[in-house]
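Hi everyone,

Forwarding the result from last night's run.
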Amino acid sequence: MRGQGQISRRLVVLAAVAGLLLLAWAPGAAAVDIQAVLAPFPDLAGFARLLASSPVARELAGRSSLTLLAVPNADLPQSPSAFAAAAGADLADVLRYHVLLEYLSPADLRRLPAAGKLVTTLFQTTGRASADLGAVNVTAAGPGLGVVRSPAPFPGSNATVLGSVTSVPYNLSVLAVDGLIAPFGFDLAASESRPPAAVNITRVLADARGFNVAASMLEASGVAEEFEGDERGAGITVFVPTDDAFASLPAGDRLQSLPADRKAVVLRFHVLHSYYPLGSLESIVNPLQPTLATEYASQAGRFTLNITRSNGSVAIDTGVVQATITRTVFDQNPVAVFAVSKVLLPKEMFTRADSAAVVAAALAPPPAAASSMPPEPPESARTPPTKLSSPPALRGGARNGTAVSPPSSSAAKATATGRWCIALLYVLPALLPLV
């Protein structure tokens, strides 16, 4: 009996040690890099671009076990932003409505009950959906794999699942659907019967962060107040330099020394008197665009921006400065706000010598920091993508390669493992007398 008791105690100790080792080495679910997943599929390039220009792509970086309802290029509306705005919704919320917080494979769709299944979306997590109306009802019906609709259907609130595009098993399933779906509660008729509230540009910039200088200049100059009236017409498109863009201006630059009325001209030079979502700017027919500053000029054709597509991004040439759009800050018809890499200096007020000084300041080495700590690497450097095999593209695209980003670096994993080993050293002496 005593020998059996010792064996039992040994088994308990071994089980405890094994459990601790499993906890130390068990990998977490991989967070999906959605841009890398969609990159091999050219038919989804438009939808991937919408995700990249919104906060949704970043929100997905920390999640796993998802289903993405992707809309092919041929099924996207000509202006997704206008589609969202017409329904009274924000484009980012429409995109969140296409992210299901559950992994659904084609086999899972075929096993759905006749009444369908209610699946929560990323939009539900924003708190802007009442009750469970941030969810979708998925049913195995229709000519495709199934139909996705709002729990309270209304016109334009459903889409047919055309087929599976690719998957990272149990982590991400990408399904193609034949159109965008608007969340319930955004009524087209109601939105058309009331004028939209004016967008507070300075508030948008404050919420987006990284635009403190531009926001304070707009507010101090009174130019921001002019935007409200312009929104009622054809809308506006605002190019906002980041704080880093202003920091790259050399000390004592001419912009800061300008009188208030001339600074206001420079600020108006950053605004087009028409609403252009990113897709429209990328395919703009007439690259030479007048700005709000043009309307205040004594001669026509002055204070214009040359907008073209270059190396996969939108380039803006003032005749003095060449800048690029780095991201979409806000896009809801009739207002679009884009971050730009440089302060746009009009050739009517500045020379190329001013531009050269800006470039020299940007290329100058930064002052030595008080701390010797190295700068934190960008997120892409911290989580390099790992290649995985994938099914053929939706319409004959690339045949390999979806990529996932690991949830943490090898250093973080080594740190966690070291902590578990230290815990084992403390636990084992207490357990050994029981053996």
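The domain at 195-350 is CATH 2.30.180.10 (FAS1 domain).

Cheers,
N.
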